[in-house]
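Subject: for your reference before the review

Hello V.,

The reviewers asked for a structural picture of the protein, and I figured it would be easier to keep everything in one thread rather than splitting it across files. Below is the amino acid sequence we used in the manuscript, unchanged from the supplementary table.
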Amino acid sequence: MEKTLKDEISQELAQLETVYNIIIDFFVNYSFQLLGAVLILIIGLMVAKRVAKGVEKLCESKGIDITLSRFIGNVVKIVLVFMVALICLGKIGISVTPFLAAIGALSLGAGLALQGLLSNYAAGLNIILTRPFVVGDTIQVQGVSGLVKDILLAYTIINTEDDVTITIPNKHIVGEILHNSNHVSLLELSVGVSYDSDLDKVTKIIADAINNHADASEFKKSLVGISGFGDSSVDIEIRVWVDSIKLNAARFALNKVIWDVLKEAEISIPFPQREVQLIKAN
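And here is what came back from the structure prediction:
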């Protein structure tokens, strides 16, 4: 019994000694190669990051929008990092051919397992290349709207007027009805004035007040006109372009402006009236 225990201990010590010798031989034979590979990896990552930033700035200076510029910069960075990794593996004597074969097999399996994620990436690439919208535009899709903060391959990030960040998978954007109002949005307001009002005067004072307001876009002139005739008022419609990220705030401010100018001009805003006739029973 005691002899068997000693034999087992001897075998374990022999195995440990073998592993130790293998490790020592590896570091003796490949220590400089390993150190060189680490240095190449560190320098390669730094160079890849700087080159990617340089490519991104170069694209922006050539008039390419920020979304496509970022995409090109990221692709360049990934390619450079992959090349550096191959050089490092070769430096320590590891053949890259089996790795490439394994990557191909894993890519096929991952493609079948991650079809939903890959569809997001494909949709993101479509958005970046076709550019139905870019960073800074205001879009409405899938019942939500907001300012585009970033466009990534998998998803798009938008910020609403309430400062809520919404992440939309790109596959839910491509192929859907998309509203892109760029930097400004159309705001439609209406007000009713009495039938005895001077309508030319009403439309002029409202148009002047709206066009001179800070929230109205200076690039698109607002429109003011008669939209219809109600039971107790003439309906005036105001179409004004405002900053997309201040849509509701502009609505409140411009309604107040309309109220103030009509009140100052002594133009009445009638309320609905109904005539009631009482019939006496015989």
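For the response letter, the relevant points are probably these. The beta strands are 138-141, 144-151, 155-159, 165-169, 179-180, 184-193, 223-229, 234-243. The chain has a mean pLDDT of 79.

Happy to draft the paragraph if you're swamped.

O.
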